[in-house]
Amino acid sequence: MEQPHSRSYTLQLDEIQGLIASGYGDRPAASYALFEVTDVARARKWIARIVPSIQFGGYRRTPRHMPPLLADVCINLAFTYEGFEALQLDQVVLRGFSLPFQEGFSDPHRARRLGDDGPSAPENWTWGGPNNPDVHGMLAVFAGQQDANHADIELPGQVIASQICEENGLRLVKVLQAWPTNRALRKEHFGFRDGISNPRLAGLARQGAVDVIANGEVVLGYPNGYGKMPMSPELPTHLDRRGDLLLPGDDHLAPRRDFGRNGTYLVFWQLAQDVKAFWNYIFRTAEQLPWSRLEREGGERSGREAALWLAAKLMGRWPNGSPVTAYPERSGSIRHQDDNDFRFGSMGDAFGEKCPIGSHIRRTNPRDTALPVPHDPELSGDPKDPTVQQDRIDRANLHRILRRGRPYGAPLDVDFDPETMLAASEALAPDDAERGMHFLCLNANLSRQFEFVRSNWMVNPTFAGLSRDPDPLLGPQRACPFPASDFTLQGYPPRQLRNLPRVVETRGGAYFFLPSRSALQHLGRDL
Amino acid sequence: MKQQTLTLVAKVRDEAKLRAVLGEIARTRVAVGIKEQPAFFADPKLGIHFARLVHIPSERRFDAWLALESNFDSDSVDPDRARELHIDDLIRSQPEGMRSLFSCCEGFPKDASLGALGAYCKRQLVAATVTYEGHAARSLARIRLEQHVRDVVLDFVGTRPPKPPLELFGEIRDHVRVQTRKDPRLKGLDLDESPPSSPDPRVRSDKLGAGLFPWVEQGIPTAAKMLPSIPSIVKWNSEDDGYDPGDEQQAWTNVDRESFNDLAASEDHGLQNALTHVVPLKPGVDREGVLRQAHAYIDRMSHEHFADIGCLGGIPTIHFAKWLLIDGGKRLLFFSNYDHSWESYLGDFIDAAALGLNLAWSCTEKYPKTTWLFTGGAKDEEAFKAWGRKYQRPTQVFYSAYPDLSISTINNNTWIRYGLHYEPGTIDLETWFRRLT
């Protein structure tokens, strides 16, 4: 694999929006305003006015407590393809965006491939689907300090109300409010610590960091994992009348200017989580497994222990985040909750005997899992060979995404205890507000990264030599490629779970583009 | 029983009518395993693994074509005889359908008899420049049997308490023996006989461990034959320009966008997809000759080397593939039946098989710039994918006999079944148990 050349390590931090540089863990309150452009002239003026208030990545140049500091309220701004059309961005630029972005997240063929069918089908979405109002843009607002108080939670909504209004040529379509992050727990609604395995961009990684990907895997304008510049929407130089898109050192006479540089594609995917269905299945199955009492160490495990063990196997991490590969039988201590520095092969887990091949974390980031068939070393390479491991990691890294998600809706238990959550879910009123994940991710190539992870690694029941095993959270019982609902616990002897339920459904989504400072300035000009 | 392949390519006279006929055939479906498939190819007597019907529309200086491709089991080991018999079977199975299809084509006989239709179809047979079979020697019946063996074993083993492997393996064999007497879907399995002789796991191991030797060995005759073309290749190396995805995208018309939408609509309905790709050769003398030499090399590698491995040039997801020349050698047609999404398939091309693909396609229009016809090219990821999509055409009718089985699964099932034929203690049980997944 070609090494990205040195330029790839110098990210133009003042140009990239701050959400690329971090997930704003220090700003626990978040709201996302989805809006429509109703008056192009006013909307463009508004963009020009709001650029100085937008959080860019400069704060990552220095340690957290040294200036430039993160703003108290971090604002980021992204547009859909329809949004750029509504803003009358030049046709040449519009045609330069990637086809998935032009087609959109809710395209029916895309939905089929990604497993958005039945209750998850775009026609059933609450936003972003064919039966919903157009979404042209998203204003993401983050606020608060450490743990959010009431005022912090209200703040993003106030910012949104003041910005997304008729006066600015915008109409509010929907506000999606995140549940304030609990920094200590950082759990999603099933009760598992989230956001651990996130790759580092080469331009932001500390010396010796593990899990580093090329800048161009996320940010346009830098070499990607193939050592090539990702495709980027450009425009003829004469259309960039004010030289907005010109950066220091650029060639003033170049025939084209790069609108996409320092920008990225942003996926917004709203997922509803059925906590009751998930833990019900786990507790019931753990109890019914005929072998569970026979073979667990010591012979005896309570229902709760067996259920946690089973859930950890499905997830690939224990609820506190410790990896099942390192702690196959019992949860690791809190010291290991953010452990992301491991390979399967070198920890004796090439064949899924500790962390099952089909587990959620293994199929969303297979690391050195020898694809396509781990248990066929003749074909896929010796999993203990570090060269093979590195080659597999390099190939898996061509499909990575930067996740920036946050949960929404009130947790069923503040401590996320499974039994308490299950009991609480039994008592819920039928009209209880749902809970789930505002899954946001960033990538330079939607089809090779986000869509590949979903269709080839999650929904595909034949991932890594499996036969009928979809991702236990997001893949069961999808019509395409074929309905499947098994889960195999590799090992001696292997065990299979059957009839996995659907526990996560898509409620809405859109593909956005998160432009650079220069591109926003360009958008802010009068027509 | 042997896998055979045929391709009929007929020049189309009435494209509108053909599209209507294809639409009707695509809509008439029956359940095959767990998915509905076009009834046209579903008759069990046809023994079809994968089949397709494609309308290659007229464009620029090229005529419109109808292609019928079938990969099928045959009792005949002679490929020519097998194809003729298969055409007769197709006509017997779908007399009206075959007649409607080919009545849209030039030279269709006025005599409406089935015999005349058969003779006409046989005249439309086209020989491929390269063919590949990913699970040669396995008939449909065997693929289904071995999948069921896997299920029977996993169902049984999943409920047994842990025991020493040798003991458990013995129990599994006893169980399968008992089931063989009761379960009609295990018909034909006899654990006390030797397993089938093909595929041979030792041959596969040897080939997987052979490194570059087979490439060199098979390449020498090709290199010798290409010597006279060196001046041309030198000239192309400096003159050929590549594919600029940005410029191409700027030039997309509504017709292009409809084509992309049609492609997406035709894909991802089952585990496998059909790729139909048609691209003109670059102009100039020698292109066809050089391409034919390169293809002869790939064809030798395909049959002598990769067929035994279940993986074509590093791509382990292809069931069947073939290249053939149409329009009197002016255009190259490619058909493949592959697992998973287009994105993953093209990714495998780039990550694992760029060199072979460059050899196959570097003489065709706008192919991403290569150096000496085999380096570069497909290594330019976005250009290669965009080029691939540009010349891809929708497959109107696609049939798969096992829309839930990947090549990996089919191969793995075979190795599980082979293991059962051996006495306990004679195979590596650790490896065998790992395959139960």
TrEMBL record, chain A:
Biased composition range(s): Basic and acidic residues: 375-389
> Which keywords annotate this record?
Iron, Metal-binding, Oxidoreductase, Peroxidase
Report residue spans for region: Disordered: 363-389
Q: Does the keyword Metal-binding apply?
A: yes
Organism superkingdom: Bacteria
Q: Which cofactor does it need?
A: heme b
Q: Which InterPro entries does the entry link to?
A: Dimeric_a/b-barrel, Dyp_peroxidase
Key word Iron present: yes
Q: What is this protein called?
A: Peroxidase
> What is the scientific name of the source organism?
Pendulispora rubella
Automatic annotation (TrEMBL), chain B:
Domain of life of the native organism = Bacteria
Query: Region Disordered: what ranges?
Result: 181-205
- From start to end residue, where is composition biased (Basic and acidic residues)? 181-190
Can you say what this protein is called?
A: Uncharacterized protein
What are the leading ranks of the lineage? Bacteria, Pseudomonadati, Myxococcota, Myxococcia, Myxococcales
